[in-house]
């Protein structure tokens, strides 16, 4: 019987942020911008194990750092072991502390992260394994797999992931206990199937093995209608996912399910769309002598960052907001 090659384990111990950035880019196949917000007296420490069909590692990042990471080559799931971090995905922000799990990368999405004395454990799954797991779970459904949220559906699902990931690190990513190629392939599919069950997505959001959760069953379209009505009536207010879910009322998970199944977006994505439409209407309707400006109108609808707002507006309407504003004259 041929010998099974041991997983390749590499490590990085350095005070240099550029060295850390290069290591992370190589390990996860993602563009990374790294900014040192508060220098740390201790070095950064990273280990990464690549078993071919599965990868993962541990990161110790003292001090405060800022990251902007592009879409990774893998589906990366991470668990905070110590310290804290804040994720920003578009306008959504998630403060996380020890014990919490999140998607550290989604296909086609960039992610902004701020960390403070962070210790992190990751598992990285090839996207091909995720697609294969989706086809197995829902035969005949060839829609692209898209994750619609960065956090697990609930605490119980997070626990399921953490137990599965701990098993992978103890047995599959241990250099002294190499697994056979077939075990690694099947294990990657198991982890991919677990990720699909744990995090909101467009495949198992609409289909599941067995009946869907009670709060999602047969009511998604009604949930969507109530949520849309609340969003359109309160788009100028400072509302978020929890506020929308409470107003419907359903759980946040059921709300995400309804939008993923019937609107192919997220609740907050729909909220941004409504707010952008309101800005567009106000820019077109503003009178030249009413003292309004593009920035004031945008801020009234929750768009505080002028550069990001202008880019989003141009993508939606094919022209800059200032061009729309000037055209009223």
From TrEMBL:
Upper lineage is: Bacteria, Bacillati, Actinomycetota, Actinomycetes, Kitasatosporales
Per the UniProt record, which residue ranges are transmembrane? Answer: none
Alphabetized InterPro entries for the sequence: AraC_XylS_family_regulators, Homeodomain-like_sf, HTH_AraC
One Pfam family here = HTH_18
Domain HTH araC/xylS-type intervals: 225-327
Recorded hits in SMART domains, A to Z, give: HTH_ARAC (SM00342)
Protein's name in the database: Helix-turn-helix transcriptional regulator
Classify the source by domain of life. Bacteria
Q: Does the keyword DNA-binding apply?
A: yes
Q: Which organism is it from?
A: Streptomyces racemochromogenes
